[in-house]
Design brief:
By secondary structure, the chain is an all-alpha fold. It contains 25 helices and two strands.
Length: 609
């Protein structure tokens, strides 16, 4: 190549941009852009506007920017909840326990009276409080230990132990013949049961997205309301069948000897079915143990595969895709399909020390939770005793006692077990309807903390008005139970207010406890501590409430214990102003960022369409 041709060859970078060319040409004022012979624009030609040309250039060289409208997020509904199958199994397991508790309350007063019929009603009321507190007292000693055990050994194992222990306790309680026997079995059931905290932990691990929390955490309180509907009616209808249905069961000796065993046997059956659901259907949610071999799930998959081949019409000699030949000996082995991929949670290598768990927000949340759980547990215990307490009879009153409403009065409603069950079924029916249709909408509108604070004020109002039911006139004279539409309208209205508060406060408390966890590695421990705080309040509350209720009956001031509960509930309303909703990861440890980056990389393929 000649020298002239080499000089004529220039790289692309030598030319620069159009704008650069203009800039260079500006500096060369002695050279015309149209050549040396160009003297200027001819007549009629538009003068060259260099600034205008640059504006066109800048406009052309800008990167293409298109405003893509953001996709409108889909509304959260019950059908949009992820992993509905696993949540359904947890729901069945949670439902079994409220059935036991609520069915017991409908006949507890009468079962205790059957142990020693010579005891007065005030003593029976105190025994009922002790019986309810014994379960919570045993939970107080073990709930945090079960929470720690679920962090170190997996969630599923703890659930199975809790359901089995409650089932044994239920059978023993039903066949008890003395107060002390019944008390021991109740304490055994509480000591072996830390399931509420573990189930809340599993819900948060199954449903990780915050937008689903208001519905996911509503499932467990909803089960309690379903139990409130079914349990009391079951307990009221099946307790003492030989006495209530003599034509059908009057000749059965064991029903006469153990009149309150049938509802406990039925409850034990529910617990056994729930344990089977957990063992065969529930997958482990703890990230450290989720990949381990699960015998129950493996057996269920093999069984369903075999049943599918038997009833699926496969011809003899046909080799299903569920079975593959072994490469070693040629035998056919069962093929277990791989688990569907799920979002992977970060595997945090470091665990938060126990001494750093109790942050300011954790302490405030636990105090409010304990105050609310204590007042609600005490009210439930005293309320059932109040409904079963005989109506005040002026003919049998002490000669020196004269009622002076609205402060000095005594007596209850006098409802039998079946009527008590019906009254509580009203409460459950109202609650389940509100939780399904109203709570998610209000929670989305107001937020978790705000709705929780507002509806806490329902409880003091209910506790103040509850004892006034004994002053409502009845269509039947005492000592018969109170009857007529005024008493039932009053009971329904009062329970409606109580259910409104419980519907919004209970799931919100579960969400706040879950989100106040300072680090994901101690989530199970936090729920265990929350259940411990609740158990501590429910240990002291019902025992003290039962004692004060019996004392009020003896001294003619039955409303005193209810008004004391109103004061405790008011403290809870005030303390709620110090609680804030956390993010579940308030404290960062070394290696947390790397663990989250690894999880994000593993989950990225799941986000692709």
């Amino acid at each position: 190549m000649s020298t002239s041709s080499k000089s004529s060859v220039r790289s692309v970078s030598d030319y620069g941009t159009i704008a650069q060319y203009d800039t260079d040409s500006d500096k060369s004022s002695d050279i015309s852009p149209h050549g040396n012979d160009y003297d200027g624009p001819s007549a009629g030609e538009v003068p060259y506007d260099r600034a205008r040309r640059r504006s066109f250039i800048e406009e052309d060289e800008d990167p293409l920017q298109i405003d893509v409208p953001a996709k409108k997020p889909k509304p959260v509904t019950w059908s949009s909840l992820p992993h509905k199958g696993q949540l359904a199994i947890l729901t069945a397991a949670r439902l079994a326990e409220p059935l036991v508790q609520t069915s017991l309350r409908s006949y507890l007063f009468y079962q205790l009276k059957s142990f020693d019929k010579s005891l007065p009603d005030s003593v029976i009321a105190s025994q009922a409080g002790i019986m309810q507190s014994s379960f919570a007292a045993a939970q107080l000693c073990t709930a945090m230990l079960w929470g720690r055990a679920s962090d170190h050994g997996g969630r599923k194992r703890v659930l199975l132990i809790g359901l089995s222990g409650t089932m044994i306790s239920c059978l023993g309680f039903g066949f008890s013949t003395t107060f002390w026997q019944a008390l021991i079995f109740r304490m055994l059931g509480g000591a072996l049961n830390g399931n509420v905290g573990v189930m809340r932990t599993m819900v948060s691990e199954i449903v990780r997205e915050k937008k689903f929390q208001s519905r996911a955490f509503l499932i467990l309180p909803m089960c309690a309301n379903i139990g409130v509907i079914i349990g009391p009616m079951m307990g009221g209808l099946t307790s003492d069948p030989a006495g209530n249905y003599p034509s059908l069961f009057g000749g059965i000796k064991w029903l006469k000897k153990y009149p309150y065993s049938p509802p406990n046997v039925i409850s034990a059956g529910f617990l056994f079915c729930a344990a089977c659901f957990i063992f065969f259907g529930l997958e482990e949610t703890h990230e450290r143990y989720a990949q381990e071999h699960d015998r129950g799930v493996h057996f269920r998959r093999k069984l369903t595969g075999s049943l599918r081949r038997i009833f699926g019409g496969e011809k003899p000699g046909y080799q299903s895709c569920d079975s593959v030949p072994d490469s070693h000996d040629g035998s056919v082995t069962e093929y277990e399909p791989p688990k569907p991929k799920k979002y992977v949670a970060p595997r945090y290598k470091n665990k938060l020390p126990f001494r750093r768990i109790f942050t300011y927000n954790v302490i405030c949340t636990l105090i409010c939770h304990a105050l609310m759980a204590g007042s609600m547990g005490t009210f439930n215990n005293v309320w059932y005793s109040f409904l079963s307490t005989p109506v005040f009879d002026p003919a049998k009153a002490p000669p020196d006692y004269t009622p002076h409403p609205p402060f000095t009065f005594t007596g209850g409603i006098g409802l039998p077990p079946r009527s008590v069950g019906f009254a509580m079924a009203i409460l459950g029916s109202i609650g389940i309807s509100m939780q399904l249709f109203i709570y998610p909408l209000v929670n989305d509108r107001l937020g978790t903390v705000r709705s929780w604070r507002i509806f806490l004020y329902c409880f003091p109002f209910v506790y103040i008005l509850a004892p006034m039911l004994s002053l409502i006139p009845s269509t039947t004279p005492p000592p018969s139970q109170k009857t007529g539409w005024p008493i039932w309208i009053s009971i329904t209205g009062l329970l409606f207010i109580q259910v409104v508060g419980k519907t919004f406060a209970s799931p919100a408390t579960s969400i706040l406890i879950n989100n106040c966890s300072p680090h994901p590695s101690v989530l199970g421990t936090i729920h265990g501590i929350g259940q411990t705080a609740s158990s501590a309040a429910r240990t002291v509350g019902p025992a003290l409430g039962g004692f004060l209720y019996g004392l009020g009956l003896r001294n003619g001031v039955v409303a005193a214990v209810f008004w004391g509960l109103a004061i405790v509930a008011s403290f809870s309303c005030v303390a709620s102003n110090w609680v804030r909703e956390g993010n579940g990861h308030e404290i960062r440890l070394e290696g947390d960022d790397e663990a989250e980056a690894e999880a994000e990389a593993e989950n990225r393929p799941l986000l692709r369409p």
